[in-house]
Design goal:
The structure is a single chain. Helix content is 29%, strand content 25%. The relative contact order is 0.09. It has helices spanning 6-10, 18-32, 41-57, 60-69, 73-77, 88-100, 102-105, 129-134, 276-281, 340-352, 359-372; strands at 121-127, 136-147, 163-164, 173-178, 182-187, 196-197, 210-221, 230-233, 249-255, 261-264, 267-275, 283-288, 293-298, 307-310, 326-333. Residues 74-95 and 100-113 have low confidence and may be disordered. Among the domains are: 6-105, DnaJ domain (Helix Hairpins, Orthogonal Bundle); 261-372, HSP40/DNAj peptide-binding domain (Sandwich), CATH 2.60.260. The chain contains eleven helices and 15 strands. The N and C termini lie far apart (103 Å).
C-alpha cells in the first residue's frame, strides 16, 4: 500500500507553519493514542502514521527534501530508507513524545518526585495606629507542620529506615509496553513514586515525618506599615519534602482605626473643634500629634474647614526615608444653648455688624443677586 501524503495525514496545507503542524499533530496524536484506544489496531496504525508524518515535517531539512522529492526524498538525501526518514519511527518517536506529550502525561510519565518546597502560610496581624507609625516587635503563635523530632523527618521508627520498593526497584517508576512499539514509564503505585516504602512507621508522626505544633514567632513590624502591607518571614512556613526548603510565612497587616487621626498615605488628619469666638478673635490652642501635644496659633477670622500643617508629624515612609505631615482641620462650633445674657450680646452684635464682618456671606449673596438680577 502506498503511503499517504504527510500533509494529508496531519490535515494541513503544504505551506503550513511549524506551529500549525505541531497543533495538528498534538490533536491527532492524542485522539489516536493507544492509551485511549486500547486494543484498537486501526487507531494504533493511525497513531504510527501521524507520528511518522510529524517526525518529517517538524524537521526543516527533512521537510525540504520531502517537499522536493516526496516519499523518495530520504533516499535522495542520504537520510536512509523511505520507511525511516533517518532512523525510522522508533528512532525519532522519543523526541516527538517528549516534545508534545510531556505536558499531557505529566506525573504519569513516571518522573520520580524530588525535593519539594514546603507550603507557605498566612497570618493576619492586627496592630494599633501608633504601632503602625513607630513599628513594633510582637510575638504570634502559628499552628503548623514541623519536622518530627522522633524520626528526624524520615517517617520510619527509630532504629529502622525506609526500604527499597520491590515493585519499582527503587526507581519510583514502572515501565509498561503499549501497542508493541513503545514504552511508557508510570509512577509506581506501591510507593507513590518515592522509590522507598516505610515498613515500620514512626509512632509519633505515623510515617509522615511531620507533626503539627504551635510555634511562637517574633514578628518585626517596621515603621510606616499600613493595612494590606505584606511582610515575608523566609523559611517560617511548613517544611519541605525530601530535603526541600521550608515555605515562607506571610504576615498581612491590619491597622486599627484611631479615635482622633485619619491616615492618607503618609499624612494624617485631625479634626479640632473650636468656638466661633476663638475663630473670630484668634488665639492659641493645644493639638495632639502622634508623639505629644503641640501649640497651634489660630489666626482671627479662621473659617470652618481651614487646615493648618504640622510638617513632619505624619507617618514615616516604609522605604525608610522622609515623613508625612499632620493636618489640623478646624471645625467651628455653633453654641446650641444660650442664656439670656448671651442672647442679648449676640443680638447687639448683630445690630452693629455689617457685611464686612462676614466676607463669605457677602460674597454668596452678591452671587445670588447677580444670578437673579
Amino acid at each position: 500500500m502506498s503511503k499517504r501524503d504527510y500533509y494529508e495525514v496531519l490535515g494541513v496545507h503544504n505551506n503550513a507553519s511549524d506551529a500549525e503542524i505541531k497543533k495538528a499533530y498534538r490533536k491527532l496524536a492524542m485522539e489516536h493514542h493507544p492509551d485511549k484506544n486500547q486494543g484498537e489496531k486501526d487507531s494504533e496504525e493511525k497513531f504510527k502514521e501521524v507520528c511518522e508524518a510529524y517526525g518529517v515535517l517538524k524537521d526543516p531539512q527533512k521537510r525540504a527534501y520531502y517537499d522536493q522529492f516526496g516519499h523518495a526524498g530520504p533516499n535522495q538525501s542520504g537520510f536512509g530508507g523511505a520507511d525511516n526518514f533517518g532512523g525510522g519511527f522508533n528512532a525519532h518517536f522519543g523526541d516527538i513524545f517528549g516534545d508534545v506529550f510531556s505536558d499531557f502525561f505529566g506525573a504519569a510519565s513516571g518522573q520520580r518526585s524530588g525535593r519539594t518546597r514546603g507550603h507557605d502560610l498566612r497570618y493576619n496581624l492586627e496592630i494599633s495606629f501608633e504601632e503602625a507609625a513607630f513599628g513594633v516587635d510582637t510575638k504570634i503563635k502559628i499552628p503548623k507542620m514541623v519536622v518530627c523530632k522522633t524520626c528526624s523527618g524520615s517517617g520510619a521508627r527509630p532504629g529502622t529506615s525506609p526500604e527499597t520498593c520491590v515493585m519499582c526497584a527503587g526507581t519510583g517508576q514502572v515501565r509498561t509496553q503499549h501497542g508493541g512499539f513503545f514504552f511508557i514509564n508510570r509512577t509506581c503505585t506501591r510507593c507513590n513514586g518515592e522509590g522507598k516504602r516505610i515498613v515500620h512507621p514512626c509512632t509519633t508522626c505515623a510515617g509522615s515525618g511531620k507533626v503539627r505544633k504551635v510555634s511562637t514567632i517574633t514578628v518585626n513590624v517596621p515603621p510606616g506599615v499600613d493595612t494590606g502591607t505584606r511582610l515575608r518571614l523566609t523559611g517560617e512556613g511548613e517544611p519541605g519534602v525530601h530535603g526541600g526548603g521550608s515555605g515562607d510565612l506571610y504576615i498581612i497587616i491590619n491597622v486599627k482605626e484611631h479615635p482622633l487621626f485619619v491616615r492618607d498615605n503618609n499624612n494624617i488628619f485631625c479634626e479640632v473643634p473650636i468656638s466661633f469666638v476663638l475663630a473670630s478673635l484668634g488665639g492659641e490652642i493645644e493639638v495632639p500629634t502622634l508623639t505629644k501635644k503641640e501649640t497651634l496659633t489660630i489666626p482671627h477670622g479662621t473659617q470652618n474647614g481651614d487646615r493648618f500643617k504640622l510638617k513632619g508629624s505624619g507617618f514615616p515612609s516604609l522605604q525608610g526615608y522622609g515623613k508625612g505631615d499632620e493636618y489640623i482641620v478646624i471645625k467651628v462650633e455653633t453654641p446650641t444653648k444660650l442664656n439670656s445674657r448671651q442672647k442679648e450680646l449676640l443680638l447687639e452684635f448683630a445690630k452693629i455688624s455689617d457685611e464686612n464682618t462676614a466676607p463669605m456671606n457677602k460674597t454668596f449673596f452678591e452671587k445670588v443677586k447677580k444670578m437673579f438680577g
